[in-house]
Amino acid sequence: MALETFPKEQTLEMRKRLIGQSCRLFFSHDPVKIVRARGQYLYDENGLQYLDCISNVQHVGHCHPSITQAASAQMELLNANTRFLHDNIVQYADRLAATLPNKLSVFYFVNSGSEANDLALRLAHQYTGHDDVVVLDHAYHGHLTSLIDISPYKFRKLGAQKDWVHVAPLPDPYRGMFREDHPDLAQAYADIIQSLICDVHKKGRKISAFFAESLPSVGGQIILPPGYSSKVAEYVRAAGGVFVADEVQTGFGRVGTHFWAFQLQGEDFCPDILTMGKPMGNGHPLACVVTTTEIANAFTANGVEYFNTFGGNPVSCAIGLAVLDVIEREDLRGNALRVGGHLKELLKQLQAKHTIIGDVRGVGLFLGLELVKDREDRSPATEEADQVVKRMKEERIVLSTDGPWENVIKFKPPMCFSMEDAERVAEKIDQILQDLKRTHHKVESRH
Ligand SMILES: Cc1ncc(COP(=O)(O)O)c(C=O)c1O
């Protein structure tokens, strides 16, 4: 099979002409054309290999043979919508249920993280009868109109905050309003939610949902203070609202110790609605909302059928089942724990050597390296982070940045990432930071 239809320059010219320019490319100054991939490796049109440190969608590895076989076998047989009775959807829901607390037991299958979050908003509204939503600052929950409305990362750029949306500070122990030296971070940040809820009530409004990622990713790979979610859930439920955990990025064993990132908050915490997406189908569009029977019943009670043409079709569910099988068979959760732990340790060693590394954080294969100009005032080293990403690309390692100041280099690679990959990444970052320091010194001594 030919790997290219057009030479790279022509592909680029056609893309500029035909595809909306708000759909951006990685490395827009010098885009990479990828024609095939396997595991954690991408290959360009000349056969050059790139190490992929950011594709959390291709969760069990790009083009995993078990996934492609499951997809093609089911495609040969049947793909129909969910109004016909079929085993795959119930078998898949049953397998997912086994990874979750009993309370989360009713599933709705959809095609993207955005669809999942939009449905979560509807479920919350229907169950509570309330309209208002509390979100964390810098959050992103999807591209639908309803989700731009609850994504400060997007609506701030548009200068348009809806009156039913309330933004709480990101509980970021490194850069947030309360930091790692605070005696009770969880309580301090949860107290703000409590007072926000009081303000909402004073305006005569009522909370429908608190909506947050279990580990805020666009916010800069943040690890929520332990105990935070339980306290917030208590306040939100007391106000008649529900707790929605967005695990579109973080689910399916990425954190290593648990299957779901919300479980990092302890045994006593369980959201009322959980949304999932990206890694579910290993690149096939498959996403889901799971909730309690009470919430699902309230949604059913409105008498309106929920129909989704593609959601939960036999091919999607065959793929979802194959993804779960590979996670188990290849112990990818264990791999995330071991390799992620090793990479974190290597990055910590670099932190001891390079003052530009302000913070190294994360769990499993969800890590962040925050660059700062000054460790005291923690001023973000945005340009330097950008330079590191560009230089890593020259080394054929694909990385990107996140966080409100785009100074957090993020790692969320396919879960088959190896110890050798981790070592190669750390070694190259070390070299690049040394080079940056040398260039910086030369410029300083010229002045
Ligand atoms: C946390 C989070 N929620 C929801 C979404 C939306 O998912 P999708 O792009 O599949 O619609 C994203 C996408 O980046 C996301 O990161």
UniProtKB/TrEMBL annotation:
Listed GO MF terms: lyase activity; pyridoxal phosphate binding; transaminase activity
Cofactor: pyridoxal 5'-phosphate
Species name: Chanos chanos
Entry protein name: 5-phosphohydroxy-L-lysine phospho-lyase
GO cellular component, one term: mitochondrion
Xref: InterPro entries: Aminotrans_3, Aminotrans_3_PPA_site, PyrdxlP-dep_Trfase, PyrdxlP-dep_Trfase_major, PyrdxlP-dep_Trfase_small
UniProt family annotation: Belongs to the class-III pyridoxal-phosphate-dependent aminotransferase family.
Key words of the record: Lyase, Pyridoxal phosphate
A Pfam entry, by short name: Aminotran_3
Domain of life: Eukaryota
